[in-house]
Specification:
Elements (H helix, E strand, L loop, with lengths): L18 H12 L13 E7 L1 E4 L4 E10 L4 E8 L6 E5 L4 E3 L8 E5 L2 E7 L1 E10 L8 E14 L1 E15 L4 E2 L3 H10 L3 E2 L5 E4 L3 E7 L1 H9 L2 E8 L12 E5 L2 E7 L9 E12 L2 E13 L9 H18 L6 H13 L5 H31 L13 H18 L13 H6 L2 H16 L7 H8 L4 H23 L2 H5 L7 H27 L2 H24 L6 H20 L15 E3 L2 E5 L2 H9 L4 E6 L4 H11 L2 H10 L2 E6 L5 H9 L7 E5 L7 E2 L6 H7 L7
Parallel strand pairs: 2-11, 13-20, 14-20, 22-24, 23-24
Antiparallel strand pairs: 1-3, 2-12, 3-9, 4-8, 5-10, 6-9, 7-8, 10-11, 14-15, 15-18, 16-19, 17-18, 19-20, 21-22, 23-25, 25-26
Helix pairs in contact: 4-10, 4-11, 5-9, 5-13, 6-9, 6-11, 7-13, 7-14, 7-15, 10-11, 14-15
Length: about 725
């Protein structure tokens, strides 16, 4: 059976005189199609799949158009390349249900004769975000219907379509589909991420050159045994798709030169994705980034001196304010006794404590900066406090704070062979203790984003690695400055109380802020896991406390008792570790996908689609970016959003309150934070009716600030 449908492969060439020539070459290259090669039925089987079996009102979830493609055949990407057309879907949606556009996985370059297309083989899932309206009630069934169309090709092209539908069960709480939830999550995790760097391009008559200035990416490409970068534009008829793309590494980034089609008109803004393939010792790593390149713009313009200085000052002030944030207080209290006990020591010894503490803070901030830069360059959607989105890290911190509190209470002493316990490092005197106090203070400071600090962090993570490190350096210096200043001011040290018996009592008192911190971290852990896992963890903490009590009781004994005590203490630590390592480091709670109330103020879960829909209807919207591990966020919510005056004002003005819960890792929220130059929470946005840009509220809120922002008058 011979067929002329192959003409669909050369649609872009119809505008030129090469059409007939390309058609002949394609026919000869692909060869005739035998009758037995044609399928008896549809080449592609289509269905709609969902990550949820049951969905709660107001929830946003992932669904996908799944195409099961016959062997050898393929369908096309959003820009099919030299031929073909992309799949599309037309929905019949009931009222109160919205579905976003396709999210396109990374395509494959596929040569078809002299042409190059961008396509998919075998199984394809095109994910979309669906939002169920608040008006639906548990027990109802929502039926979504759509007609999907696609072009499928192998030597010939066949247009196909299918009627698909998806029944959704509405329930009080959502329930994952154990088969499709992990499959859709895998597809979503490999979607192109928003590029963490700016992209510029220049164009000649024959080629365009994309350029990126990012030292971390250049270093990664240089470290790979073999690396390639491929550009896929969203618009067709611009680049020569079959032509090789030439990668050149530079000291501060890379460039990619791509031949143009004859007579191509290059727009000023060029959207698309780049796909990196790196051959490493552990195999091949593939990453993709989405961006819009700007014609004639430098890939990244280094900030002017005054801008950088201003951001550095903001970072310093933010670090300084961290010292009075509730998450840092307990650690600084713990070290307060150090200056008291050292008040009679030499000025040099006191200065060295200040220097070592500053070194611990600065080294920790720079280490966090390097990790953030490396992960974001690798495509990870993370921000400030990213480690606290892992139940494993939260759990270990809770156990660590409990260990320190027990030590301060006198339950056990950190001596001899057990001196390597983390709490011992921070409670030791001298340089080592001061250094690790700085490390510990930095770790527990990460849930906080102090005033001045949020904008500086957001700025840092959109600049070059050098600029980012400068910002983090000033952040660390700001946090360490009070302690450093005190250590270099002998007159201030002399005014401290003299050492005496009161110090032991004060030391025991300081244990209680540590117990409070451990309790808060344990509660945060409970927000990220299921109830059974939370109970197991709490029991492991109780046993940890018992094991440390046995350790302390054995210290005054002779014979084998000290050894038994040490073994018991280590066993307690291992038990906590065993209760945590059942997780993969990413929180699994689905709580962030549900709505609720704060006091009498109802809220809905945030999604970009929901926000866009509300703004398109010209409705006022207030968005709260928060996390359970962010103390500043929780204080603001308790002090402001639970108040009746705020709830009444929101209701009176018809303001929709959206809550973006970043407790668990969420790349959508991370990208949205980055749009407003923020790398962490809290962030508060108020979109007034008709406003193009939102009003960004301060990170520390009061009723007056919120009511003034929404135009609800003064609070007396």
């Amino acid at each position: 059976m011979r067929i002329g449908v192959i003409a669909c492969l050369v649609n872009p060439l119809r505008k030129s005189g090469l059409f007939l020539l390309a058609l002949m070459i394609s026919w000869l290259a692909l060869g005739p199609v035998e009758a037995q090669e044609l399928p008896d039925g549809p080449v592609v089987k289509a269905r709609i799949v969902s990550e949820k079996l049951e969905v709660s009102p107001g929830e946003t979830l992932w669904i996908g158009l799944r195409l099961d493609i016959l062997k050898h055949w393929h369908v096309y990407w959003r820009n099919a390349g030299d031929a073909g057309t992309a799949p599309n879907i037309k929905w019949e949606l009931p009222e109160g249900v919205t579905v976003g556009d396709f999210n396109w996985p990374i395509p494959e370059r596929m040569a078809e004769g002299p042409l190059m297309t961008f396509a998919y083989k075998n199984e394809l899932v095109l994910p979309m975000q669906l939002t169920l309206g608040e008006q639906w009630t548990p027990g109802e069934t929502v039926v979504l219907k759509a007609k999907a169309r696609w072009l499928v090709c192998y030597k010939i092209c066949i247009p196909e379509s299918a009627e698909v539908e998806l029944p959704i069960q509405v329930a009080a709480r959502s329930l994952d589909d154990t088969i499709w939830a992990p499959k859709i999550a895998e597809v979503v995790s490999h979607l192109p991420a928003a590029a963490p760097w700016a992209v510029g391009f220049s164009a000649t008559e024959d080629a365009l050159t994309l350029s990126v200035e990012d030292a971390a990416m250049a270093e990664a490409l240089g470290a790979a045994k073999k690396a390639s970068v491929t550009f896929f534009p969203y618009e067709g008829n611009i680049i020569s798709n079959p032509a090789p793309q030439t990668l050149a590494r530079t000291g501060e980034g890379f460039s990619l030169t791509i031949p143009l089609q004859d007579g191509a008109v290059v727009p000023d803004d060029l959207p698309g994705i780049v796909v990196f393939e790196e051959e490493l010792d552990g195999g091949t790593l593939e990453r993709a980034f989405e961006f819009t390149a700007t014609k004639g713009a430098a890939a990244r313009e280094e900030p002017a001196g005054l801008i950088l200085l201003g951001k550095a000052v903001s970072a310093f002030l933010g670090g300084l304010i961290l010292n009075i944030m509730p998450c840092v207080f307990p650690v600084l209290f713990m070290k307060a006794l150090g200056f008291v006990s050292a008040s009679d020591a030499s000025h040099r010894a006191i200065r060295m404590q200040g220097i070592f503490y500053t070194a611990g803070v600065v080294v920790s901030f720079l280490s966090l900066a390097l990790v953030l830069i490396a992960l974001r360059a690798g495509g990870a959607e993370i921000g400030w406090g990213f480690q606290l989105q892992s139940p494993v890290v939260i759990g270990f911190l809770a156990a660590f704070m409990l260990a320190i509190a027990l030590n301060l209470s006198g339950v056990y002493e950190v001596e001899g062979r057990f001196v390597n316990l983390g709490s011992g490092l921070a409670s030791k005197e001298g340089g080592t203790g001061s250094f690790f106090t700085g490390v510990l203070a930095t770790v527990v400071a990460t849930p906080c984003t102090a005033p001045f600090m949020g904008a500086a962090l957001g700025f840092a993570l959109t600049q070059s690695s050098v600029t980012a490190l400068i910002i983090f350096l000033f952040l660390g210096l700001g946090m360490a400055s009070p302690y450093l200043l005190l250590s270099f001011a002998p007159s201030l040290v002399k005014k401290l109380p003299k050492p005496g018996p009161w110090m032991d009592l004060f030391k025991q008192f300081l244990a209680f802020p540590m117990y409070a911190t451990a309790a808060w971290l344990a509660w945060t852990f409970g927000q990220q896991v299921d109830a059974q896992s939370f109970l197991v963890f709490l029991i492991s903490l109780v046993i940890l406390g018992l094991s440390f009590w046995i350790l302390g009781a054995s210290e005054t004994k002779s014979g084998r008792w000290p050894l038994i005590g040490h073994i018991t203490g280590i066993a307690g630590i291992l038990l906590v570790a065993a209760s945590l390592f059942q997780y993969d480091g990413i929180a699994k709670s689905a709580a962030s996908s549900e709505g609720g109330t704060e006091g009498s103020l109802p809220y809905s879960a945030f999604s970009p689609e929901r926000l866009s829909g509300l703004r398109s209807e010209n409705k006022p919207v207030f968005v709260n970016f928060t996390a359970a591990w962010c103390i500043s966020c929780l204080v603001n919510e308790r002090v402001v959003f639970t108040q009746d005056a705020v709830a009444s004002a929101f209701e009176e003005k018809g303001i929709t309150y959206l809550k973006a819960d970043w407790t668990n890792r969420d790349p959508v929220i991370t990208r949205t934070l980055a749009e407003y130059d923020r790398a962490g929470v809290p962030l508060y946005l108020y979109f007034a009716p008709g406003a193009i840009e939102p009003e960004i509220l301060p990170q520390i809120l009061t009723e007056k600030i919120v009511l003034d922002a929404i135009g609800a008058g003064q609070v007396n």
